[in-house]
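Researcher: Let's try something more involved. This one mixes different molecule types, so please make sure each is placed in the same coordinate frame as the others.
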Amino acid sequence: MSMRATGRIGDGATGRRGDGASGAGFTPSPLDPHASSPGRPVASSGGPVIRLRGITKVYRMGSVAVHALRGISLDVYRGEMIAIMGPSGSGKSTLMNIIGCLDQPTGGSYELDGVEVSQLADDELAKVRNRRIGFVFQSFNLLPRLPALRQVELPLIYAGADDRRTRATTALELVGLTDRMHHRPTELSGGQQQRVAIARALVNQPSLILADEPTGALDSQTSLEIIGIFQQLNREHGITVVFVTHEHDIAEHTRRTIHLRDGLVVSDGPVANPRVVG
Amino acid sequence: MGVIESFRVALQSLDANRLRSALTMLGIIIGVGAVIGLTSVGRGAQNAVTDRIQGMGTNLLFVRPGSTQQGGVRSAAGSAPTLTMEDGEAIAEEIPTVLGVAPEAGGFVQVISQGQNLGTRIVATNAMYPSVRNHNVADGEFFTRQQVESRSLVVVLGANVARTLFGDASPVDQMIGLSLGPRRMSFRVIGVMEAKGGTGFGNQDDVVFMPITTMQERLSRQRTPGGQHVVGNLNVQVAEEREMDRTVQEIGELLRRRHRVAQDDFHVQSQQDILETANQITGIMTILLGAIAGISLLVGGIGIMNIMLVSVTERTREIGIRKAVGARWRDIMLQFLIESMVVSAVGGIVGIILGVAIARILAGLEFSGQALPAVVTADSVLTAFVVSAAVGLFFGIYPASRAARLHPIEALRYE
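Model: All components are placed in one shared frame. Result:
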């Protein structure tokens, strides 16, 4: 895969300079090489990025209550790269929605960067999604008709940032799409579309990137390229990546795998021999 | 997200669906165009009527006979033969604020000249008429006080009568025959009045003017029971506008005294009264036209709501994506509201252009020989624009709030 953009990352000088002292709200800049050293996961200077305690989710279908999550507790630390796995119906999508602040748990506590987010109102959740979470979806979820650069600018627009173009360009360089910045989704291959989505996910320097079956719509070669990008972002820029997947192939490329079944964590442990792309 | 950014997002998505945006606009374009076009016709009619009434003279009062009552049967207003020449003379002499009085009596005659036979109306009056009614002679001269006193057999022709009978040639000093009922007489034409315009009954151009005494003595012999000469009405010119109300009162007192009646057998009407009545009627007409056109604007607004609702459904996934990356309630709300307002405002502007064009075309047309006046006023343009933008806002609220309320997960899942 293309690694050519990585050399220029520090030159942008547009990202926030992380000084490591701002406490729970501090987000390491993925665009700033000083935020982490290559090859080494950044250890938790503060608490975990994600701290779940007894998370439950109950859906009401008429008079029937469906217990999607029955009490999930787990910690994800800064710089980790994990996969949440489980068969369909295990509750992994529900967990992803809750971790992604798209939905709220019925019970339990969820601290993101040390801030309790399980009780926030819709607009506050929107702000959290904007500033702290980057999403990558199976179906890319790009806006129709917008060129790549504008897709990547979208989170910055809602954040009210003013150096959008520079930051979006830098993010596209990171995923190796410098030469496709003005192409629309219909003019891009699946892999390229997913790279645009990854650039969009990381442009606002989030605390974590949440990837829901990011290779589900791609062939195996392209899948490997995409996984490679995530590994590179994680390794070289210390970005926390959480995959939600049922593909063992992806899980083997992470360093920790959590298995869910019937709304409970059934296993949580390191991957024996993590595979590395490239 | 700022308003400017919301505008950009809204414009982008309108641009992405050009045909749909244009079709949505069409409803507003037609609505606003109709409002402007039709109200301009109404305003034009109003202006024409106002011009006409103001052209009758300045500071004018009209005294008309009232109705008679005999044994509980009231006849129509204006039908009683109660106003006389002598009343007119008394008003002119006894009320100091009156500048002049021109009595009027009328009838229909056949004009016979050079083998042509033309039915027209007689206005019999005195020498004050041109100055009181602000209607001057274009060719020749009006009859003098002496000619009135001597009951001269002279006439002054209205512009249309002169043109009909004599074409472009001057009718001055020509002889014409007039027949009223069984009587027939020859008159000398001494002048032609300037054209006043207007159509229908009361057109001052389709008239033959003659001295009122001539009419009373030689053609019609209507008298009151007391032997006085009856007139149709009195045109009274008042010197100053601020004396109008007082003069109306004084004329009332004078006539009540002269007629020895408890109940008024006459009406005094000022030019302003007539103007107000006419303006009321034309104003109602304008509102009516505007209201009819307003319905199409309303339909256009509902069209916007309809399309916006479709658009919200169609773009559910887009809304989900925007929400996932951090769009708040107000960001989505603003985006869709601005979209509908831009559609209706742009539609409004195009509609205004269309409306002005309609007004121009209508103003160039002639209906039954008369130009249809159409006046586009700044306030009707402004109103139409503000209303169309408000229509966009109002009918955009519901679709926009539907979009803004969508749950991000369900929106993302929507296929």
